Amino acid sequence: MNEIPKWKIACHCAVSDGVPRCSLYVALIVGTILNLINQGDAIIGTGSVDWIKVVLTYFVPYAVCTYGAVSAQARQVKPGTTGEATP
């Protein structure tokens, strides 16, 4: 009867169990590769860097990785529990 809302479980999962660190590593690797592909000429110095694109290119892989981890953890949580993933 005292069920925890899904958004609270999702927020808890997004900041626990190493999710932020793993998402950061993925964002740094994937974001760097994508920035080199998309703005390589600007980074080398033959064009202008679009800083909004740089930020978004790192943010999107971070968000996707976090969403995947939260989705996986949320499927393991039993309704009405504290939000901790079951082994």
Oligomer: single chain
Enumerate the spans where pLDDT stays under 50 for 5 or more consecutive residues. Answer: none
Question: What number is the mean pLDDT?
Answer: 84
The coarse silhouette is: elongated
Number of helices: 3
Give the tags.
87 residues, mainly alpha, 70% helix
Characterise this structure.
This protein is an all-alpha fold and 87 residues long. It has a domain at 18-76. The protein contains three helices and no strands. It has helices at 6-14, 19-44, 51-76. Helix 1 (6-14) packs across helix 3 (51-76) and helix 2 runs antiparallel to helix 3. The mean pLDDT is 84.
Layout: helices, strands, pairs:
Blueprint: H1 6-14, H2 19-44, H3 51-76
Helix pairs in contact: 1-3, 2-3
Short description:
This protein has three helices and no strands. The protein is mainly alpha-helical and 87 residues long.
